[in-house]
Write a structure and sequence with these properties.
- The protein has 3 domains: 143 residues, Jelly Rolls; 269 residues, Di-copper center containing domain from catechol oxidase (di-copper center containing domain from catechol oxidase), CATH 1.10.1280; 172 residues, Jelly Rolls, CATH 2.60.120.
- The chain starts with a helix and ends with a strand.
- The longest helix has 22 residues.
- The relative contact order is 0.11.
- The protein has 12 helices and 26 strands.
- By secondary structure, it is of the alpha+beta class.
């Protein structure tokens, strides 16, 4: 990760307190002190009086993640040390109570997240608490810009031997102990993504009577529904998640970052590591046990025999039997082969805030949506797992490790020289000056309770947020040809693997076939025939017959438009003329169907690239007057009737440039 800009903002520097008059560093100075001073007999400074303090001023050109290190030792009185200190950052109680009993000089470390810091002056105060009866010696203070590394949750077999998971559990437990109306609580954060407490996850709709109302979620966890935050806080924070549109990746990156900052502080307050970062679950590595959920999430107790906050009852799996694993025949990372963000990898332009839009990107469609349903699952038509529903998903601790992996894939996609949108409508996000559509901005709670307003331009890269990943390589070989390379080789019948440069295609796709009636899906397979219009079909055939490195073939898409229903916990497989076309999930369909919701009941739209299928049919002369489409459910699907309807199945042609 390139952190040069942050390092330049705060290079490593030390103030030496082994002298009476320490020299300030470029960015750090001792602004004032009281009940503290130089002890010549020990050649160091110490805090000597109860409530004695040393207040430092840290100057920053821009907020960065700061490593705060002190070389200290404890003073003993009758062989014991009693010198509790606190560290306060800009008025926030960062470390409220730290006790050191080592009489030898040693280094202690903390990491201060940028969410607690300002551009300009920052007051960091080290205070000897009034319960102290011995001194606390400080020999030096060092500050430096630092970064975090998010590591694989399956390190040390995914058990609590992995300290990242152990401390995650302890941090989650502490957040769960906070009340619903606390913006830094586990429950409040889950409601930021979506909730069923005050409404049906959309303003103007009554909360469900019974499950999935949060009051009726089977414990554990025992989910609170009161005390409610103020209406102002609910309107500012709750029901924000961006799905089925191009804000999906950046909104969730900011969501994880905000949670990680809060957990990092909690974990350090409990004596955990200064460099803790949110792990990721890489369920895409099919050669290992990582297809299974890390075992730490299935244990009912922590190693100290206390309840495990990572354990969730409503986590049923794709077969409904509680076994949580990811089916590699359904879940994949083919999205990483995309070379364009808008209308492909990241989703379509939603023209503003879209709690659930109708233009799902490939990253969101698979693996994101598939993993949600394969983990959550269902046990009946009226009871499904937390992960299967956006209004419940943030309550499950595995959610954040899933999204950490989704964020890792996006970072990996960028590392492969794929670029994010440069359109100001994406970079600036929905905001108060946006003349288009819904203007609701993105807000997250900071650890000190203040609001962080952010835009995609602020989370465009992970280096902007001072973190990286243990492994940024996608499991698919980097030498594997992308879809267009494969098509060129297949259609031209040569071994060329020349990689064409594809630009974002802003042309309007041409419709050349559509079903003529609403389609109902249930627990059995459904057959649909889509008639193709002859003129655009002939244009497509001409394109496929004249392929060269300079004459790219047209793309062909199958669009399932206006998917509506009440049950998110379903995955379907699509087969076109007996050839697998891919899978789609109903994750989010309940939200997208609400008539009074943000998307006014338009439902979901799923787009499948069937260009390779069109190529195969063309080569054997079977691209005829219609496509035979079969849609069949995957896993254990519990339903007494239809799970959803589809307004229309359409076929589109798009010329490549």
């Amino acid at each position: 990760m390139n952190t040069s800009s942050n390092v330049q903002a705060l290079p490593s520097q030390t103030i030496n307190f082994s002298v009476a008059n320490p020299t300030p560093s470029a960015n750090l100075s001792l602004a004032k002190s009281q009940g503290a001073g130089f002890r010549s007999q020990y050649s160091t400074w110490s805090l000597t009086e109860s409530t004695g303090f040393m207040q430092f001023n840290l100057q920053l050109s821009t907020p960065v993640r700061v490593a705060w290190s002190m070389v200290v030792c404890a003073a003993l009185v009758d062989g014991e040390a009693n010198n509790p200190i606190s560290i306060n950052v800009n008025g926030f109680s960062f470390i409220p109570d730290y006790v050191d009993q080592d009489p030898n000089f040693h280094t202690i470390n903390w990491t201060i997240p940028p969410s607690l810091l300002n551009a300009g002056d920052n007051a960091i105060t080290v205070t000897l608490l009034d319960s102290a009866s011995s001194q606390f010696f400080i020999q030096s203070v060092t500050v430096a810009a630092t970064s975090l590394t998010r590591s694989n949750a399956w390190n040390n077999d995914g058990s609590f031997q992995n300290t990242d998971l152990l401390w995650y559990a302890k941090g989650v437990g502490a957040m769960m102990s906070r009340s619903l109306d606390d913006p830094t609580s586990w429950w409040f954060f889950a409601a930021i993504h979506g909730q069923y407490i005050v409404d049906n996850d959309d303003p103007g709709t009554p909360a469900p009577s019974g499950f999935p109302n949060w009051a009726d979620i089977p414990p554990v966890p025992a989910v609170p529904t009161s005390p409610l935050p103020s209406n102002t806080l609910i309107a500012q924070y709750w029901d924000q998640c961006q799905h089925a549109g191009w804000f999906f990746p950046p909104w969730h990156r900011g969501y994880l970052y905000a949670l990680e900052n809060i957990l990092s502080i909690i974990i350090q307050q409990q004596g955990g590591p200064a460099n803790w970062a949110l792990p990721y679950w890489n369920y895409l590595d099919t050669n290992t046990n990582e297809l299974n959920m890390p075992p730490a999430f299935s244990q009912t107790q922590l190693p100290d025999s206390t309840p495990n906050p990572l354990f969730v009852t409503a986590r049923y799996g794709i077969e409904g039997n509680g076994k949580i694993y990811i089916d590699p025949t359904v879940v994949n990372q083919s999205c990483q082969q995309d070379t364009v963000y808008t209308d492909a990898y990241g989703g379509g332009d939603t023209e503003g805030f879209a709690h659930f839009g109708s233009s799902t990107g490939d990253l969101e469609q698979n693996p994101h949506n598939m993993v949600h349903v394969e983990v959550g699952g269902q046990v009946s038509q009226t009871l499904w797992g937390l992960m299967s529903d956006p209004g419940l998903a943030g309550l499950d601790p595995i959610f954040y490790l899933h999204h950490s992996n989704i964020d890792r894939l996006w970072a990996s996609w960028n590392q492969a020289d794929n670029v994010n949108p440069t359109d100001s409508d994406w970079l600036e996000g929905p905001n108060d000056s946006d003349p288009r559509g819904n203007r609701r901005p993105f807000y997250m709670p900071n650890p000190n309770g203040s609001a962080w307003l952010y835009y995609p331009s602020m989370v465009n890269t992970i280096s902007q947020l001072d973190y990286s990943y243990q492994d940024l390589n996608a499991q698919t070989s980097v030498t594997a040809p992308n879809l267009m390379q494969t098509r060129l080789r297949t259609l031209s019948k040569t071994s060329t693997l020349a990689a064409p440069t594809l630009m974002q295609n802003k042309d309007t796709p041409e419709l050349f076939g559509a079903s003529n009636q609403k389609i109902s899906l249930g627990t059995a397979a459904t057959q649909v025939s889509v008639k193709l219009d002859n003129t655009p079909k002939q244009t497509l055939l001409k394109s496929l017959a004249s392929v060269s490195a300079n004459q790219l073939p047209d793309d062909v898409y199958l669009a399932l438009e206006g998917i509506k229903g009440e049950m998110d916990a379903a995955i379907y497989k699509v087969i076109v003329n007996n050839i697998d076309a891919g899978h789609f999930s109903l994750f989010g369909v309940r939200k997208a169907t609400l008539q009074t919701g943000h998307h006014a009941g338009a439902g979901l739209t799923v787009k499948l690239n069937i260009s390779a299928i069109a190529d195969q049919l063309h080569l054997v002369g079977d691209l005829l007057d219609s496509l035979d489409i079969k849609i069949e459910p995957q896993g254990s699907l519990q339903s007494d009737g239809e799970t959803c309807t589809i307004d229309r199945i359409s076929v589109y042609r798009l010329a490549n440039k």
